[in-house]
Specification:
Blueprint: H1 2-15, H2 30-33, H3 57-68, H4 79-91, H5 97-104, H6 111-121, H7 123-136, H8 155-166, H9 171-184, H10 189-194, H11 212-232, H12 251-259, E1 264-270, H13 274-298, H14 303-319, E2 326-332, E3 341-343, E4 351-354, H15 378-386, H16 394-407, H17 428-440, H18 445-453, E5 483-484, H19 487-498, H20 516-520, H21 553-557, H22 576-584, H23 586-598, H24 603-612, H25 618-628, H26 635-644, H27 647-650, E6 651-652
Antiparallel strand pairs: 1-2, 3-4, 5-6
Helix pairs in contact: 4-5, 4-6, 6-18, 7-8, 9-15, 11-12, 13-14, 16-17, 16-18, 19-23, 22-23, 23-26
Length: 653
């Protein structure tokens, strides 16, 4: 075995370049540059079709594709369906019965457009659309891996994203602030919080055996990978160990991208008052002293003594106060700059040639030189290149994401992968036209939402079957796609329908009561302190703690992502544990009680209008009334619970 290991080491040493060499820039063939995503965006003119169905250029593109396939669009959805669809898309919450009635009875010519504008102007819009971005950047409030240490100040980044969406901050500015907020203005608190984007990835901590070089490599890897996935729609991480197998991304491209972060280090900026900091230190001093003694004693303790020491350590844990409030940010440390080398097989121990920093070469003119790692404000340089209107990718990537969230299927069905192994765009001309309009409009999202949602394409019914044979996946959008509510939407809707939803926005994340057995499975030191104010437990799900090693059971069963990797699109599954959670879960049963107490008068009609946005049909009314005629006092609660389990509640047409 020793001989084999020695031989492997010799082969690796021979294969790896000398660490004093400089990696060549690499050339890219015309064939490699030919892939559609790497080409400049085309200046597309919308089709000139004359059809009353067309309300804006989006419809012209879609109708042209339908006509070529011999298909026709579906009829427009009724107003009750439309207001529920639009409200969920923009707010993640149901419209109230009063809002539905007002819209259905509004005969003004632009009633629908005013509805869209009203929803876009609400602060609820930012809460819904921030969730999409947080999925993409794998936001969480703990480190993950074995120790999963809590990040008590990470919530500020979540609030920054919500505020940015509500303010309709231009997307190019949004990206610049996250990549380089601290470089743009190190005295601006908002920009410092935004720079926390660079620290969102999971962080491995091996207490007692911390390998600094290994950890630093993983940190740089996380920083580079998320830029590729979230902003460029490129699987850059596939080139960490070797040249990309499918796309023209060299291993040197990958490490040159890491080079932009060579100076970047964590920066926790304390914002607590001097008095608060002093109280924290005063409280912690004796606790830390005792913990040091106990850990020292643990080395020579018997098994029985170790048990007692662990019990005492747990008692001390419960006394540890929350750390002083801080901003979770980054800063440049030129003196602690990490030299960037090609790493054989991605192993930090097998260093190869040195590199500077440069964007992926396939998107640059041939032989574009790299910049030295010592360059000032490196991440700002990267941000300026990413947001340059000439860059073909970021605008395409973002409008593709927005389209996908509205229509249930993105134009490019792999939103994080525009490479050769990703899906080809279903409407390439439309994608480029939208991307160009996005930039012309100042990179603002609300005008894009408005355009998409006021189109005839978006207003179609989901009930049509005219294209089922020719286009079973509905790629051409001959109808609207029906969708299941996401985990957060289900929970928030149950809270809203029951009358318990707490609309409070922002601030530290809430820890709700969960099964003690789940907490016991967490490795110490980890803390789960249930928020004392019970009303806080009824806030929107986006304000609950997002912990990597303990995803809320309710969210998990309804396909919430694990936050270790970027989530470009959520799965939509239907399985038995979901039904069991809604029928037997503590949350659904608790809220069913609150829901039943809201029902007065015509309980059946009121319940359906609250839960599904419509009146019951004759069969539903008959069965519901028959069930409620039962003298059993739990009948109303069981009826309310049954509505939480209905398709009309869980799906948006």
């Amino acid at each position: 075995m020793r001989r084999i290991l020695a031989l492997v080491g010799v082969v690796a040493a021979i294969a790896a370049p000398n660490i004093n060499e400089v990696a060549p820039l690499g050339k890219y063939t015309p064939v490699e540059r030919r892939h559609w995503a790497f080409q400049p965006r085309k200046q597309v003119v919308p089709p000139t079709l004359k059809d009353p169905w067309i309300k804006n250029p989006v419809d012209a593109f879609i109708l042209e594709g339908l006509q070529k396939a011999g298909l026709k669009p579906a009829a427009e959805a009724d107003r009750t369906t439309l207001i529920r669809r639009v409200t969920y898309d923009l707010h993640g919450l149901p419209p109230t019965p009063e809002e539905i009635t007002a819209f259905v009875n509004d005969k003004a010519p632009r009633a629908y457009e005013r509805l869209v504008d009203r929803l876009l102007a609400s602060p609820r819009y930012g809460e819904q659309w921030a969730r999409h971005w947080l999925d993409v950047v794998r936001f969480a409030e703990s480190d993950g891996y074995e120790y999963d240490t809590h990040r008590p100040d990470a919530f500020r980044y979540r609030d920054y994203v919500i505020a940015s969406f509500n303010a309709d901050k231009p997307y190019d500015q949004f990206l610049k602030e996250q990549l380089a907020g601290d470089e743009i203005d190190p005295k601006n608190d908002t920009l410092l919080v935004a720079s926390g984007f660079n620290r969102l990835g999971p962080l491995r901590k091996n207490a007692g055996n911390q390998d600094v070089a290994s950890s630093r490599t993983e940190v740089l890897t996380e920083m580079a990978n998320i830029v590729g996935a979230s902003m460029l729609g490129m699987t850059m991480g596939c080139a960490r160990c070797h040249d990309h197998k499918f796309d023209p991304i060299r291993q040197s491209d990958y490490y040159r991208l890491q080079g932009y972060f060579a100076q970047t280090h964590a920066n926790d900026i304390v914002v607590a008052s001097p008095e608060e900091q002093a109280r924290y230190k005063e409280t912690m001093a004796p606790l830390e002293a005792e913990m040091r003694k106990l850990r020292f004693a643990m080395r020579r303790a018997s098994e029985e003594e170790k048990g007692k020491i662990l019990t005492r350590l747990e008692e001390i844990d419960e006394k540890i106060p929350s750390p002083p409030a801080a901003m979770y940010a980054v800063k440049n440390e030129p003196k602690e700059m990490t030299p960037i080398h090609l790493l054989a097989a991605g192993d930090y121990r097998n260093k190869g040639a040195k590199v500077g920093m440069r964007p992926p070469g396939v998107l640059l003119p041939e032989e574009t030189p790299e910049l030295p790692l010592e360059t000032e404000k490196p991440r700002q340089r990267l941000a300026e290149w990413i947001t340059d209107p000439a860059n073909p990718l970021p605008s395409r990537v973002m409008v593709n994401r927005i389209w996908g969230y509205h229509f249930g299927r993105a134009i490019v069905g792999t939103p994080n992968d525009f490479g050769k192994m990703g899906l080809k765009p279903s409407h390439p001309e439309l994608l480029d036209w939208l991307a160009n309009e996005y930039i012309k409009g100042g990179w603002q999202m609300k005008p894009l939402h408005r355009m998409l949602m006021t189109s005839s394409t978006y207003r179609q019914s989901s009930r049509s079957t005219v294209g089922a044979e020719k286009d079973p996946e509905n790629k051409l959008l001959w109808k609207m796609n029906r969708r299941r509510l996401a985990a957060e939407e289900i929970r928030d809707t149950m809270l809203a329908v029951s009358g318990r939803l707490n609309p409070k926005a922002g601030g530290p994340s809430v820890m709700i009561k969960i099964d003690e057995e789940l907490i016991k499975d967490l490795k110490r030191p980890q803390y789960w302190v249930t928020t004392r104010d019970r009303s806080e437990h009824d806030r929107r799900t986006i304000y609950l703690i997002y912990k990597r090693n303990l995803i809320m059971p309710f969210n998990q069963v309804f396909d919430a992502p694990d936050t270790l990797l970027s989530c470009a699109r959520r799965d939509q599954s239907t399985h038995a544990p979901q039904a069991l959670e809604l029928l037997n879960g503590t949350l659904s049963n608790d809220l069913a009680v609150a829901f039943s107490k809201r029902l007065t008068g015509d309980k059946v009609k009121q319940a359906f209008r609250l839960a599904t946005g419509r009146a019951p049909n004759p069969k539903e009314r008959l069965l519901s009334k028959k069930y409620l005629d039962d003298p059993d006092p739990t009948a109303v609660t069981e009826f309310a619970l049954s509505l939480f389990n209905s398709n009309a509640f869980l799906y948006v047409d």
